[in-house]
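Posting here for the record, re: zinc ion.
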Amino acid sequence: MGDRDPKKDIYILGIESSCDETAASVVRNGRDVLSNIISSQIDIHTVYGGVVPEIASRLHCENINGVIRLALSEAGMDFSDIDALAVTAGPGLVGALLIGVSEAKALSYAIRKPLVAVHHIEGHVAANYISHKELEPPYVCLIVSGGHTHLCLVKDFESYEIIGRSVDDAVGEAFDKVARAIGLGYPGGPKIDRAAKDGNADSIDFPIGEVRDRPYDFTFSGLKSAVLNHINRANMTGEGVNVPDIAASFQRAAITPLVDRTIACAKERGIDVVALAGGVSANSELRRRMKEACEAEGISCCYPEPVFCTDNAAMIAAAAYHRYLAGELAGLDLNAAPNLKLGMSLEV
Ligand code: KG4
Ligand code: ZN
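Prediction output follows.
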């Protein structure tokens, strides 16, 4: 901003409520996390086998004030100490997003602090700046969450080129659906990750999805159907379902194209840094294999600490930092944007 003292530290209070976590965090200069409060609703949604949007909205409403208060007190601050507020404006569940957006606008008005609107997925990418203080664009980023599977070139802090994406299910969605089919329940990703450690990834030959003439795109629907067919056959023949083997074999078939295409993309573009982002980047096997593949090619590999891979508000505050510096502020007419696409500018 024009009259900003460049030597002054910038403290941003981030707010996240796009799905089933109510979160608030104070972050200094887009990198240093002073507090990171996450109120998870997982236990309640588990009863229903997935996120129930109406319940999510109600719980955000009940918890958001307490979560923000805690984030400030853990950072040893009050509202007067922060420079700006940041909130996830989209994509996500509209009712859930609206709680965070309304809260942030009300606070911005009441405490007279500027507001920055953040794209949830840009937040996931920015989580890497927290865990890797030296990381700067350009780098290739594999974004893998419950709703996104995107291979991007991050050209600058706010500029993305989308190189590939899933043409059907997001990879996190595939983890969740397969977990449900083999009886592991919700949330599926971490349960498959755990079960796969006791299984043999060579035991079942699941297909690796390819999209014709689009070498950097992904498809997971064939893999998901193959798993469902395997389960039906195993049940019909009386062979029985071996949960760890299915988890390990599915996980391998899901991860292989992610690793191979990310490395191919980095090599083709001459980029020597690869980052992972989104909930699935917490997956231990994806982290291990991407690191190994990067090392073999002389590429540096980064991923956020697990707590910053899944939904949190520190990543939202981190993503807001460069927008704040550029003076890209939201007005009190900010609305939730449930279908916001990556690379689509937030209308602030
Ligand atoms: O980024 P995220 O927390 O929320 C969205 O923005 O979608 O991602 C949630 C997704 C879910 O599909 C969840 O099953 C998956 O991330 N996930 C994992 C792991 N932890 C979370 N998938 C595989 N392995 C994990 N350890
Ligand atoms: Zn997310």
